[in-house]
Q: What sequence folds into this?
């Protein structure tokens, strides 16, 4: 009996230890949970800032490329709204927009709290553990250069037609004619006998993928590929509603062969702000290419009837992020630039 009493007294002596252990473990678990929530918040903030830096760099890059250069204030104004819109609370700090490297812009963003406008994350759970405030940042660099390849409307222009390197935002309205012959074509009125500058379109999507320095095959015939009707109707819809249609065309310097065996040596890409065309007879193949549509001052630009073929508009500077899908850097500078993130 004495032994039993001793055992009971020992068990009573240890009563309450489990409660202390649970309390200590709760403190540890709460601390770990708070840290997990805060680390998640930090990562989320970092992702938002990176998206903002990426978008801001691309926006500033497009502005600088399309205008042939831009001021620091203009680049800042282009980057800031995109950085803000990519933040859940609608505000971000654009620490810098660096234009010091030619044909590049680097945007650096950091935290601004949307409620307090402090430069750090507030209301963190781990502040109960006396953790310091956190500032997060991100950086992105975009570059622009003439595209070396990609997709474009499947009609090739000769670089002997016009001074494409002199493109400006409001270039001279002009007619590019490939039949009958002009300075764009040979004396017989065709660039490649039987080819007319149309490129092969194996995917039947009115979109020819080419690359500079390579030869592109021709699609013989006087009319564009039939699969282009949807594209042309889209142009008509945009122009009829008062919009603008800017289309990139591959540009070649030499050609060889005839018919299906004809090829074009692609040297770059130029963008044409189209106001009218005559790719064929009737339907979507013709649009506002009459003297009346172009106005008395530009009546001479109208493409005549019959088998004449032309496109009317302006060569313009143009910067695109995704239209080409190719890389930049190797093509001739014809006023069209591919803008892309490089880091």
A:
């Amino acid at each position: 009996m004495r032994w039993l009493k001793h055992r009971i007294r020992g068990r009573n002596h240890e009563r309450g230890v489990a409660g202390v252990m649970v309390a200590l473990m709760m403190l540890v678990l709460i601390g770990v949970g708070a840290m997990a929530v805060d680390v998640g918040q930090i990562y989320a903030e970092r992702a938002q800032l990176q998206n903002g830096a990426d978008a801001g760099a691309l926006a500033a890059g497009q502005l600088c490329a399309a205008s042939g250069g831009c001021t620091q204030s203009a680049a800042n104004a282009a980057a800031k709204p995109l950085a803000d819109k990519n933040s859940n609370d609608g505000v971000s700090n654009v620490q810098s927009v660096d234009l010091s490297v030619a044909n590049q812009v680097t945007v650096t963003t950091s935290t601004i709290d949307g409620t307090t406008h402090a430069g750090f994350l507030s209301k963190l759970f781990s502040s109960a553990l006396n953790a310091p405030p956190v500032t997060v940042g991100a950086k992105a660099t975009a570059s622009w250069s003439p595209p070396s390849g990609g997709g474009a409307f499947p009609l090739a222009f000769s670089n002997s037609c016009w001074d494409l390197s002199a493109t400006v935002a409001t270039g001279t309205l002009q007619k590019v004619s490939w039949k009958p012959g002009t300075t764009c074509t040979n004396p017989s009125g065709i660039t490649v006998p039987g080819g007319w500058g149309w490129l092969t379109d194996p995917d039947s999507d009115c979109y020819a993928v080419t690359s500079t320095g390579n030869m592109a095959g021709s699609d013989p015939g006087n009319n564009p590929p039939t699969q282009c009707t949807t594209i042309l109707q889209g142009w008509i819809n945009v122009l009829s509603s008062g919009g603008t249609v800017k289309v990139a065309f591959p540009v070649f310097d030499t050609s060889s062969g005839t018919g299906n065996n004809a090829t074009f040596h692609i040297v770059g890409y130029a963008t044409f702000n189209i106001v009218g065309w005559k790719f064929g007879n009737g339907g979507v193949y013709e649009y506002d290419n009459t003297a009346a549509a172009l106005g008395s001052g530009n009546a001479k630009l109208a493409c005549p009837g019959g088998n004449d073929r032309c496109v009317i508009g302006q060569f313009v500077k143009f910067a695109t992020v995704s239209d080409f899908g190719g890389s930049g850097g190797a093509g001739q500078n014809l006023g069209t630039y591919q803008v892309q993130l490089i880091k």
